[in-house]
């Protein structure tokens, strides 16, 4: 059996919070450590999702799809940027 690598996390909390966490863990039939690790993992996943996932209204989703399916003509500035990009790639 292979050993699982772990890291340690310590936190100072009030006695009232510790009692609440213990009670919640007991209600779910978990150890305090298991309860805290699961809660922290859930909170971390939510925080990352909120930072990385873009949520659009239905109207914005429709507009996004329309632009993908029928993109506008490139502007002169975009054409210059694409030409400059091509020049930079050719010289390397």
From TrEMBL:
InterPro entries per record: Ribbon_hlx_hlx, TacA_1-like
Top-level division of the source organism's lineage: Bacteria
Keywords: Toxin-antitoxin system
Family: Belongs to the TacA antitoxin family.
UniProt name for this protein: DUF1778 domain-containing protein
């Amino acid at each position: 059996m292979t050993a699982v690598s772990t890291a340690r996390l310590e936190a100072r909390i009030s006695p009232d919070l510790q009692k609440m966490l213990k009670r919640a863990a007991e209600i779910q039939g978990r150890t305090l450590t298991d309860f805290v690790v699961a809660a922290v993992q859930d909170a971390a996943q939510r925080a990352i999702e909120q930072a990385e996932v873009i949520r659009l209204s239905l109207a914005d989703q429709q507009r996004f799809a329309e632009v993908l399916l029928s993109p506008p003509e490139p502007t002169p500035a975009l054409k210059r940027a694409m030409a400059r990009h091509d020049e930079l790639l050719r010289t390397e």
